[in-house]
Design brief:
Radius of gyration: 26 Å
Structural class: alpha/beta
Family: Belongs to the NADH dehydrogenase family.
Function: Alternative NADH-ubiquinone oxidoreductase which catalyzes the oxidation of mitochondrial NADH does not translocate protons across the inner mitochondrial membrane.
CATH topology of the largest domain: FAD/NAD(P)-binding domain
Distance between the termini: 40 Å
CATH class of the largest domain: Alpha Beta
Largest sheet: 8 strands, mixed
Helix content: 25-40%
Strand order of the largest sheet: 3-10-9-8-5-4-11-23
Number of helices: 15
Organism: Morella rubra
Catalytic activity: a quinone + NADH + H(+) = a quinol + NAD(+); a ubiquinone + NADH + H(+) = a ubiquinol + NAD(+)
Enzyme class: oxidoreductase
Number of strands: 27
CATH architecture of the largest domain: 3-Layer(bba) Sandwich
Strand content: 15-25%
Number of domains: 3
Length: 501
């Protein structure tokens, strides 16, 4: 094995040489042939010629057209799942390499589900990204775009300040799909970003879980005052939408079924407060809202109507001067345009989203589409901006994939080749209804197509069974469906996992 040790030494030397140059910001590729012959050529000490690259160049006439997708949310992932990779090469750019099944994210905060149960790898959603020569996934953020030259400018994501410097590169596209999502709204309130935790990503749920369990354990330390113990165990949720209500319901279930058994010394101190400026679940039927209010109150959730004025390290202040101390603060007040969307010089819809027409194209630019929470109909279409819901994003992704497939089959996949092409029927959204769980094996199902329309509304245990069944079937892969079902069964039999890892 002397040749293998020589190979390892040469590889280590080359790695140190490559990393010792602080001015290098582009990756260097070495051929496998060089590594395989390193041991035999060690005496001659050759200097390999690096292949420099600054991104993906425009596609050649003999290559498939390239679709660049920005984002791995509901819209982008549904598009990548349905797009025909025989017609297109797919390049995905996103700061995360997975999709999050957001309807079940609140359940992971208290151990009802494990985190991997709600995350699906992009390589599983679209296998071509992992194996096709012209398709790639780039762990990066889009920083800007040049729509005149069909270019997006990107910067790689790094893991903290002590990791590698970010690499900047460009990607040429034939078709660009902006599905970068939105960011949580803070309404300019000071202290929210510093002290509150949002609930949109897996790492948010991990942070909430660690914080919650840490506060439970700290509250049992000898010498902690009664006042400090009450503050540590006060969980405050701001925002009475479906996410805030579902998290409050999961938290109350966790307190009733697990905390009172395993943290008996502090079971009387832990409290949950839900703060909402108006009515909770404002998009639901009035009868369902009243039912949810009664059930949450019965579960021990304190409902407060108020507006947050300021957030400090250990308390928040309402506009009427009320001070609310907290140990855990979860912020769920809706979403708004991201910094990238705000920076783009593209037509905008009411509310600041990227404006699109009836076929989800961005007007005034060629070969650019926008879907999901970052997009909205321009005023000239006469259509209202659709709500930032998973079902809206998913159906936009499905529609656009079919549209791009039809364009590709009509030889319009290349840049500037779809001008004047008949695109068929425009996108039409039909609301399928809303669901929310409120804890204690109870949920709400509102099947009305709009807030003003009439339709079927259900509540109670049967709604909870429908809620679980519907979301179990909507989980993307059979692997994750199996994970979710097993997690639910394990929680039912053995209780939630309260390990702080």
């Amino acid at each position: 094995m002397a040749w293998f040790r020589s190979l390892v030494r040469v590889a280590a030397i080359e790695t140190r040489k490559a990393s010792s140059n602080p001015l290098s910001t582009t990756p260097t590729l070495y051929s496998l042939k060089h590594l395989s012959t390193a041991a035999s050529n060690q005496r001659r000490d050759p200097q390999p010629t690096p292949i420099q690259y600054s991104g993906l160049e425009p596609t050649r006439p003999d290559e498939k057209p390239r679709v660049v997708v920005l984002g791995t949310g509901w819209a982008g992932c549904r598009l990548m799942k349905d797009i025909d990779t025989k017609l297109y090469d797919v390049v995905c750019v996103s700061p995360r390499n997975h999709m999050v099944f957001t309807p079940l994210l609140a359940s992971t905060c208290v151990g009802t589900l494990e985190f991997r149960s709600v995350a699906e790898s992009i390589g599983r959603i679209q296998p071509a990204i992992s194996r096709e020569p012209g398709s790639y996934f780039c762990l990066a953020n889009c920083t800007s775009m040049d729509t005149n030259n069909h270019l997006v400018h990107c910067e790689s994501v790094t893991d903290g300040p002590d990791s590698l410097d970010p690499w900047k590169f460009k990607i040429s596209y034939d078709k660009l799909v902006i599905a970068s999502g939105a960011q949580p709204l803070t309404f300019g309130i000071q202290g929210v970003k510093e002290h509150a935790i949002f609930l949109r990503e897996v790492y948010h749920a991990q942070e909430i879980r660690r914080k919650l369990l840490l506060n439970l354990m700290l509250s049992q330390v000898p010498g902690i005052s009664e006042e400090e113990k009450s503050r540590l165990l006060h969980c405050v949720v701001v925002g009475g939408g479906p996410t805030g209500v579902e998290f409050s319901g999961e938290l109350s279930d966790f307190i009733i079924k697990d905390v009172r058994q395993r943290y008996a010394h502090v079971k009387d101190y832990i409290k949950v407060t839900l703060i909402e400026a108006n009515e909770i679940l404002s998009s639901f039927d009035d009868r369902l809202r009243q039912y949810a209010t009664r059930q949450l109150t019965k579960s021990g959730v304190r409902l407060v109507r108020g507006i947050v004025k300021d957030v400090k390290a250990q308390k928040l202040i309402l506009t009427d001067g009320t001070e609310v101390p907290y140990g855990l603060l979860v912020w769920s007040t809706g979403v708004g345009p991201s910094p990238l969307v705000n920076s783009l010089e593209l037509p905008k819809s009411p509310g600041g989203r990227i404006g699109v027409d009836e076929w989800l194209r961005v007007p005034s630019v060629q070969d650019v589409f926008a879907i999901g929470d970052c997009s909205g109909f321009v005023e000239s279409t006469g259509k209202a901006v659709l709500p930032a819901l998973a079902q809206v994003a998913e159906r936009q992704g499905k529609y656009l994939a079919q549209l791009l497939n039809s364009i590709g089959k009509a030889e319009g996949g290349k840049a500037n080749m779809a001008n004047g092409m008949d695109l068929g029927k425009p996108f039409v959204y039909k609301h399928l209804g809303s669901m929310a769980t409120i804890g204690r094996y109870k949920a709400l199902v509102d099947l009305r197509q709009s807030k003003e329309a009439k339709g079927l509304s259900l509540s109670g245990f049967m709604s909870w069974f429908i809620w679980r069944s519907a979301y179990l079937t909507r989980v993307i892969s059979w692997r994750n469906r199996f994970y979710v079902a097993i997690n639910w069964l394990t929680t039912l039999v053995f209780g939630r996992d309260i390990s702080r890892i």
